[in-house]
């Protein structure tokens, strides 16, 4: 139990250090003790409850969410983007911008960078800065051909990102989903297609999106999924997709006649990539994101605040 004098001394030192901005050396000279003793007294004041640290910043809530996501799902990193009061379009833009910044700062020693497809990744590429890095090669992680929404296909995003980095890229000249498994096998037998897929399996970093095929589905908008397909996927327990590959609530990969017609890196292959960065937003994807985390498909998550909070609350 501290005496009144001891407590008074600790309060005085704490005030000089935290309120007046004195250094420990200056305080030591004033009260006639060594600097290490001042350091011990500051620690003692903390333990006694005299000093309580508060961080006053609007980012503190998002930082706490990041720490919980990293802890709960064993992530290497999490970035939670403030989204309160923003429209859905602005949230998508903010998350894309955060993804662009994170990626641009984490390209050291990266030789091959894989990119998937989707509207959020299109925002990332749009916001990515022009930084020369000629040693990198960009690889699309799945096919994607056609005339609809070309700007969000993996090939196009690989090309646009390569322009920003002033580097080279590959093109996967094949549809993302073909009509039959036989056609898929014929396409995979083509050397150019198999070579790009092999590049995709061996990238240093993969940047992906996560989709919910049942709500606000871009797959449906593109015409890849019909109502009949969606009913079928629902019966299989599908709650999310990454690069046209589907998984259930527990993160188990769904392999069936439909998913066997996809041309791209598989989820099993994705898990073997050193760093997989998911850039995703939208509360409608809550189940899909949780399932992807449960499946261990990603190790870096860049996400909006509202969805991050819902994931943590429902963990």
TrEMBL record:
InterPro entries: Cro/C1-type_HTH, Homeodomain-like_sf, NagB/RpiA_transferase-like, SorC_transcr_regulators, Sugar-bd_dom_put. Gene3D superfamilies: 3.40.50.1360, Homeodomain-like. Residues 21-41 form the HTH cro/C1-type domain. The keyword Magnesium does not apply. One of its GO terms (molecular function) is carbohydrate binding. Belongs to the SorC transcriptional regulatory family. This is Transcriptional regulator. It comes from Aeribacillus pallidus. The lineage of its organism: Bacteria, Bacillati, Bacillota, Bacilli, Bacillales.
